[in-house]
Specification:
By secondary structure, this protein is an alpha/beta fold. The protein is 32% helix and 21% strand. The longest helix is centred in the N-terminal third of the chain and has 16 residues. It is globular. The mean pLDDT is 94. Bound molecules: inosine 5'-triphosphate.
Length: 197
Amino acid sequence: MRLVLATRNRKKATEIVRVLGDAQVEVLTLDAFPDCPEVEEDGETFEDNARKKALTVAAHTGLPALADDSGLEVMALAGEPGVRSARYAGEGADDAANLQLLMDRLGENSHRAARFVCVLVWADGAGGSRSFFGTVSGEITHHAKGNNGFGYDPVFQPTGFDRTFAEMTADEKDRLSHRGEALRAFAAWYKNMTPGQ
Ligand code: ITT
């Protein structure tokens, strides 16, 4: 059974396709459905937003859909940027502007604990849905380091490592990341649901 990835973030989609490909799940991207409506991400939680995205894409395409809502929670900033991670510096802000605002707000604060959160919602096309969660704890570095990944990766150093996600290979990040954890939980469940696929 095929499913559609309900994301317009290409870097995120690349990570999802990579991990689900390893688990032999066949995925289509929104490139195949250019008329799919935009979803306003006005939920209060990652799960609310992911569910809204998955249900919208499943209804439009008539196929099961998988959405990812994710973000960075910085403890010293009371969980910001959180669900607003993609538009922290305003609607249409790019990764560089969001990252710069985070660094400005955190300044030289010595309390730099943070975590990435990922909630995946699978929608079956008949109104049903199911959620999968992943988190990874770490800290915000004082300076951006590395060129891999996307978003806040250059300033996020997972606990127990002396490199940021942007200094790691794709495989290393997938093994440690919030998205990797949620995707592996989804893939295990999906395989049971679609035996022989
Ligand atoms: P879609 O809604 O179309 O999937 P989006 O980029 O708007 O794309 P989100 O609303 O879930 O997605 O926002 C996720 C943001 O959180 C993303 O733009 C990054 O700024 C940040 N983020 C999430 N996962 C990340 C990761 O693995 N590495 C770095 N930053 C990440």
